[in-house]
Amino acid sequence: MSYVILGRAIKSEYLAIGTLATAVGLGVFSTSGKKEAAPPSSGKSPVETVKEAVKFNASSSEEEQFIKKFIEEAEKEAKH
């Protein structure tokens, strides 16, 4: 079977191949690109770096202390 596109007969297998090639091409293109350089290590562990980068959205100082205490306890349990 063929379809008439812009006055020309195009076979359905060519349309299928074109569709698959376009989908694969877009996938490859979207995953490629400029890679960001990793920040230079400052000698800190990744956990310490994340702790400094993450901000708590606590509504009070008590809530912030509770979160910090919970994290410390979870780290102690993870080390055992």
From TrEMBL:
Stored InterPro entries: ATP19
Presence of keyword Mitochondrion: yes
Principal subcellular localization: mitochondrion
Gene Ontology BP term (one): proton motive force-driven ATP synthesis
Keywords carried by this UniProt record: Membrane, Mitochondrion
Compartments, record wording: Mitochondrion membrane
GO cellular component: mitochondrial membrane
Name the record gives this protein: ATP synthase subunit K, mitochondrial
Organism: Daedalea quercina L-15889
